[in-house]
Amino acid sequence: MRVLFAGTPAVAVPSLDALVQAGFDVVAVLTRPDAPVGRKRVLTPSPVAACAAELGIEVIHAARVDAAATARISAVNPDVAAIVAYGGLVPPAALAIPRHGWINLHFSLLPAWRGAAPVQRAVMAGDDVTGAVTFLLEEGLDTGPVFGTLTESVGPEDTAGELLERLSHSGAVLLARTLSAIEAGKASAQPQAGDVSLAPKLTLEDGHLNWNHPALAIGRQARGVTPEPGAWTVLDGQRVKLEPVLMRPDVTGVAPGALSLQGKSVLVGTGSHAVELTRIQPAGKKMMAAADWARGLASHESVVFE
Known about the structure:
The chain is α+β, with helices and mostly antiparallel strands.
């Protein structure tokens, strides 16, 4: 079966590898154009493009599936398209090209968390269980019928990045199995059922911690935005980046945003109990252990995060 693979970030690479290892004829890869990376803004191929190059697969670079990209997709004559975090919408003209349609690997238990940031939103919401599904792509936002499902527990200290890494590998197996079932004529897609929730793309502001919120909510938020866009707060008018915090229910009475040093622990008050900072990156400096940063303070008593 001739497969077009569409994807861009690193989390899509295991799926491309899995389809090749499963013996599918991946005739082309659709991915977003090279993007500037690092402080020097060097134009760099997407992780999926780099993987495709290593595998000797034709690459179609397109920021969106326009008429030109649609023509190139049509030219490779795929039987099915597999899509994992491509980063753009697929218009009706392109959806109609493969006879088996476009099969999307999505990292949530649809219809929960439809949208661009399902894993991040699940962590921020405090979900205990999430997962991944394969479904038939339609014009609507993640609305198509579901072929296969897997579940994954969300650990109390899981960051979105760690959870997504696990799902990228288990989801790759699910995608390969789904395409095998389609090829064998044994696939059956079922309509989505349950409560719908949306997972819009994260913005920088989603990482801004509000110390008036309860500690549990702050912890979930920090884990949900790690590694991107990252948790942050404001100190003396400057943005300070933070890695995920630890719960300290044994410490109460610290004002929201106020700093409290207890031994080697750097604590911050919230709307409930305190949280403990792990690592911090002050403006213009590198990420460092919170204890090392605190030792450099002239006085911690006047430190208040906003």
